[in-house]
Design goal:
This protein is of the alpha+beta class and 125 residues long. Helices cover 44% and strands 22% of the residues.
């Protein structure tokens, strides 16, 4: 059902936890569906220098959060805004159709954190 990459990112998630000095924070999802993702970014000169996440949800939700953080770490905010749920799923060698919403939540969490940073810094994307 799940690819080896999904299982690897679920059992050994990258960038898990909070960033106390985050200057971009985004939270998406809802407790009714059961998946909540919160992303913490440290952005310097419009580059994501550090990123962490906390996810409450299924294995696919954790894996997509982990992969999404890996995809945007070290990228500019412009580059990170181009990450899509499809690119997250592809980087994990695919997701079952019923779990594609998890990759969408990961995309939305990344974009929400960048939006939060832009609002704090009075920047326009």
């Amino acid at each position: 059902m799940y690819s080896d990459k999904v299982m690897e990112h679920f059992t050994n998630p990258r960038n898990i936890g909070e960033l106390p000095d985050a200057n971009g924070v985004g939270e998406v999802g809802n407790s009714k569906c059961g998946d909540i993702m919160k992303v913490f970014m440290k952005i310097e000169d419009d580059v994501i220098v550090d990123i962490r996440f906390k996810t409450f949800g299924c294995g696919a939700a954790v894996a997509t959060s982990s992969m999404a953080t890996e995809l945007v770490k070290g990228k500019t905010i412009e580059e990170a805004m181009k990450v899509t749920n499809k690119s997250v799923a592809e980087a994990l060698d695919g997701l079952p159709a019923i779990k594609m919403h998890c990759s969408l939540l990961a995309e939305e969490a990344i974009k929400a954190a960048i939006q939060n940073y832009c609002e704090r810094e009075n920047k326009v994307l």
